[in-house]
Design goal:
Blueprint (H helix, E strand, L loop, with lengths): L1 H11 L2 H14 L4 H23 L16 H6 L3 H17 L18 H9 L13 H18 L7
Length: 162
């Protein structure tokens, strides 16, 4: 049931509904409060850009391939911290140029995406948002592997195993 509702929410739900469903799932779990506190801001940061891309029908994966719907699998592809950093720079460059760049999508129109939530999140983990070539601390990457594992369990409906 969780899997079907999350799939439906990602396909057409708004940010508040998706975060609410994930929060409710986390509250019912035996997961440590530390992980619950880290997970929701991460999900919010990702969705703050994926939902506007979904609404513009401009979803793409980390390799730049077009996707028609926001699925759990596509969402999880963006849970990798390096991929998320790349997404932030792609969207910043797209906003600057007024068109979607660095993807295989040939978009007729592009509305700039608000990067405030994603930017605050990434800068909170010492990710340089001025120079894409500057790496970030491995400890932040490792932390996000744990968060991604938890999100994977939620989206795959495996919270009973947490």
């Amino acid at each position: 049931m969780i899997l079907n509702s999350m799939t439906t929410l990602l396909k057409s739900g708004n940010l508040a509904a998706i975060l609410g469903a994930i929060s409710a799932t986390l509250e019912r779990s035996d997961e440590a409060p530390f992980w619950r506190q880290k997970t929701l801001p991460f999900v919010e940061a990702i969705l703050s850009v994926l939902i506007p891309l979904r609404e513009q029908k401009l979803l793409f994966d980390p390799e730049g391939n077009a996707h028609e719907t926001l699925t759990p699998a596509l969402f999880l592809r963006w849970c990798d911290l390096m991929s998320l950093k790349t997404l932030a720079f792609t969207l910043a460059k797209s906003n600057d140029q007024g068109k979607l760049v660095r993807t295989k999508i040939i978009a007729q129109t592009y509305q700039p995406i608000d990067l405030e939530i994603l930017g605050k999140y990434l800068s909170g983990y010492t990710i340089n948002l001025e120079d894409e070539s500057i790496d970030f601390p491995i400890r932040n990457y490792n932390l996000h592997i744990g968060i991604s594992d938890l999100i994977t369990k939620i989206l795959n409906g495996n919270m009973n195993n947490v």
